[in-house]
Amino acid sequence: MNEQRLAVELPGLTLKNPVMPASGSFGFGDGRIALENDLNQLGAVVLKTTTKNARTGNPQPQIAQFPEGVLNSVGLTNPGVKAVVQQKLPALRTKYPDLPLIGSVAGESVEDYMIVAQQLAESGLLQALELNVSCPNVAEGGMQFGVDPRTITKLTSLVKQQVDLPVYVKLSPNVTDIVECAQAAALGGADGLTMINTVYGMRIDPVTRRPAVGNVMGGWSGPSLKPLAIRMIYQVAQQVALPIIGVGGISSAADVIEMYLAGASAVQVGTAQFSDPLACWHIIADLEEELDKLQLTSLTELRNEVKEGFLNERR
Ligand SMILES: Cc1cc2nc3c(=O)[nH]c(=O)nc-3n(C[C@H](O)[C@H](O)[C@H](O)COP(=O)(O)O)c2cc1C
User: Fold this and answer.
1) Ligand 1 surroundings by CB, under 6 angstroms
2) 3-310 adopts what CATH topology?
3) β-strands 45-50, 101-105: how paired?
4) What family is it from (predicted)?
């Protein structure tokens, strides 16, 4: 394998390849799959979103699976920032001294975000932070921050002032104008964007005539999210200079290439791990062959094409 071919440089992140498990799909690297496999082969690991206090999550069932995607209403279950900083992070870092780790931050208020961001950053164990302003599963936190451009700017700039780490703002697709939200993050000083979080959705079981998840509505993810992610990443890449980590429906190396063609500079994989727990490893293994098939020397080459813009071709 030619390591340089897949290598990616992003603010604060030197990645050997562009593939990382998305927040919420890999815990704190403490699940069975993480413990039984070599995380050093991944580009980076994004940790479960962390809040100030521990959260037990929403009523069961929290996850409903369908052929075309997954509805989840997990509700940011996590042990709280203190336990993450004192136990989860040191355990992962001791095992993987060189693995790029991205912490994910959420809160019920702007102050909460700042406290969590500061404590995660002060641990000295992370390379970057992701601001989750886009969780649809928490009534008092998350998505309400990510649908208001002024709040995105304020939150981003306050966190940026507070921490000495690159900050990636994870945008919500549950908005009318995604470009406005991306510009708001840029205005606040974001170093990059992660796009997209789940779509706010609902499913009803015809047999039980009950909502498919305990919290009635939840976040929709998986293959059927991909066209929305591609469209939003493409629109933002045309207008905003920040690097974009693409996420939403990726399950193959071909999907990674498509994300790059839309304007992403790295990718995250979430729901694909439900059907293939080793999806990230398999996608990485397939990437070079996919590049060969398309006669491409590197992923960066693909990313450069985006700057030309398909929209110019549209009448
Ligand atoms: C079960 C589950 C839990 C998730 N938890 C989080 C989370 O804690 N923080 C976050 O930013 N996104 C979370 N997400 C969203 C994913 O990180 C990702 O943005 C989304 O699922 C789209 O990607 P995918 O189609 O590859 O899953 C979660 C998604 C799922 C399915």
Assistant:
1) 22-24, 48-49, 63, 70, 72, 74, 76, 104, 132, 135, 170, 197-198, 219, 221-222, 225, 247-250, 269-272
2) TIM Barrel (3.20.20)
3) parallel
4) Belongs to the dihydroorotate dehydrogenase family. Type 1 subfamily.
